[in-house]
Design a protein that fits this description.
72% helix
């Protein structure tokens, strides 16, 4: 239940952490590998953001307009 509710946020945060770790600590890694890891992290952030925007938000109360 927790993962279903926050899977987009978890994915975006994981992508941001991977990006920051790559930027700060992998300076001696070859340039091509660093770029690939950063692109992968950016894709994770984008997909997480899309999942957040398209989520059902079933945990929030919604009003019935069928009155």
């Amino acid at each position: 239940m927790f993962f279903q509710k926050y899977k987009g946020l978890i994915l975006a945060v994981a992508g941001a952490v991977i990006y920051m770790v790559t930027t700060l600590y992998f300076k001696d890694l070859e340039y091509g590998y660093r770029v690939c890891i950063k692109i992968f992290a950016a894709i994770m952030i984008i997909v997480g953001g899309i999942m957040i925007e398209d989520s059902n938000r079933f945990y929030k109360k919604q009003r019935d307009n069928n009155v």
